[in-house]
């Protein structure tokens, strides 16, 4: 333990509320918001569906809101995607200054990897990685392919490889990583195929975590690694208690990949689209900036 879970005695910090007591988008400045939601010391975001449309670049309105937020509070992005996706979707569009980037924390692959900005070379430094062992990688790839074939879910026509070794995560994408959004959405509209594959693979890999990822994907990581794990690591490395963080995500429902963060009791803001997020973040940044002047 790091002691990071204990708020400083002088912070005037109020006991946190569970996420399900939080208010939704409609009233982001509501005075009854709990302390971490009203004045978070760090704001963490999901990527796909929250900061940007799925697998698409972050729009400028979102980028502008995020820059304003980075001016007043540290920000983290946690996603199942790998660092390349962060670069393409977020960093290439962010247009942030070096000091803003210095307050940005990146946690790809559900926080199994953690990057911070290096002001000297302008690049991103890998601080830690919880990679799978070579045996686990081999096992995971073999089992997921065999089960996909057995269930008739192994597609011969794909856009890029169906299996991807992301170091700390194996990702199976039924139609390949580069498949167009429409094809992905049409493949498994109810999520039934993905759930069947997940269950079959999970039964054969009891020592690994097997989880539904994006619209056509199943992710395999070390056990116990999800966005809640990433948030705990974030509390360790920043020394900011979880109780003083706010998480923003589009899948906080019990089936969603953001749910573990909500379940651990971190204050959460649910959004449906990046437009929701942009409006919320602009308001939050303005409110925090006002507070700084007082
Ligand atoms: Mg999402």
From TrEMBL:
Coiled coil segments of this chain: none
GO cellular component terms attached to this protein's record: cytosol
Top-level division of the source organism's lineage: Bacteria
One annotated GO molecular function: magnesium ion binding
Pfam family for this entry, one: Hydrolase_3
UniProt protein name: Phosphomannomutase
Lineage: Bacteria, Bacillati, Actinomycetota, Actinomycetes, Actinomycetales
């Amino acid at each position: 333990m790091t002691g990071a879970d204990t708020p400083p005695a002088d912070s005037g910090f109020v006991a946190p509320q569970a996420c399900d007591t939080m208010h939704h988008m409609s009233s982001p400045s509501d005075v009854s918001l709990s302390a971490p939601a009203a004045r978070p010391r760090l704001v963490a975001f999901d990527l796909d569906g929250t900061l940007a449309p799925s697998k698409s670049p972050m729009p400028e309105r979102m980028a502008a809101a995020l820059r304003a937020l980075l001016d007043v509070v540290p920000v983290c992005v946690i996603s199942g995607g790998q660092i390349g996706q962060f670069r393409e979707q977020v960093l290439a569009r962010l247009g942030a200054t070096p000091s803003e980037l210095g307050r940005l924390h990146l946690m790809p692959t559900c926080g199994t990897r953690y990057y911070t900005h290096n002001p000297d070379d302008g690049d991103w430094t890998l601080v830690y990685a919880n990679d799978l062992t070579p045996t686990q990688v081999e096992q995971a790839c073999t089992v997921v392919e065999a089960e996909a074939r057995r269930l008739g879910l192994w597609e011969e026509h794909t856009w890029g490889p169906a299996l991807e070794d992301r170091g700390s995560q194996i990702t199976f994408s039924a139609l390949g990583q580069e498949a167009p959004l429409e094809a992905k959405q049409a493949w498994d509209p109810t999520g039934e195929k993905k759930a069947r594959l997940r269950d079959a693979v999970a039964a054969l890999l009891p020592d690994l975590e097997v989880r539904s990822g994006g619209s056509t994907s199943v992710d395999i990581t070390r056990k116990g690694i999800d966005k809640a794990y990433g948030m705990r690591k974030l509390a360790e490395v920043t020394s900011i208690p979880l109780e003083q963080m706010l998480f923003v995500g589009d899948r906080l429902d019990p089936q969603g990949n953001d749910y573990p963060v909500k379940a651990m009791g971190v204050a959460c803001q649910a959004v449906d689209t990046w437009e929701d997020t942009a409006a919320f973040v602009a308001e939050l940044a303005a409110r925090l900036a006002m507070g700084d002047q007082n």
